[in-house]
Amino acid sequence: MEQNYAGDVSVEQAWEVLEQDPDAVLLDVRTIPEFQFVGVPDLSALGKDTQLLPWQVYPQMQVNPDFVATVKQLGIREEQSLYILCRSGVRSVSAAIALTAQGYKNCFNILHGFEGPADERGHRGKVAGWKAAGIPWKQN
Prior knowledge:
Elements: E1 7-9, H1 11-20, E2 25-28, H2 32-38, E3 40-41, E4 51-52, E5 56-57, E6 62-63, H3 67-73, E7 81-85, H4 91-101, E8 106-110, E9 137-138
Parallel strand pairs: 1-8, 2-4, 2-7, 7-8
Antiparallel strand pairs: 3-9, 5-6
GO molecular function: transferase activity
Keywords: Transferase
Protein name: Sulfurtransferase
């Protein structure tokens, strides 16, 4: 099966590239309530900001019709490496595919996303993903 985006990376790999490549961008595609109540990646130690742009619009959860146009308005160039994050690594794949279809060449899905899968008690953020890996994040 052909993959329609650049590939999948671990949260650690994404952090490493974001640290080393000044042009690499972290794009968080979760919803506004997730940004507000769950937290967001903190790239301040790298001198960068996480770009926050929902792939789906809460509460109806329809795909954001302005998603690709807004990425362009943010000034993200087609050749830049884009590391795309959602809660668990599903919406970010869809966003990576959509951006790749519109000419973005280096769209990477971050495996397990910000919170990863639920643990045996149904809690996220402890098994895998950005938070579980101990990579910097903050509450807004």
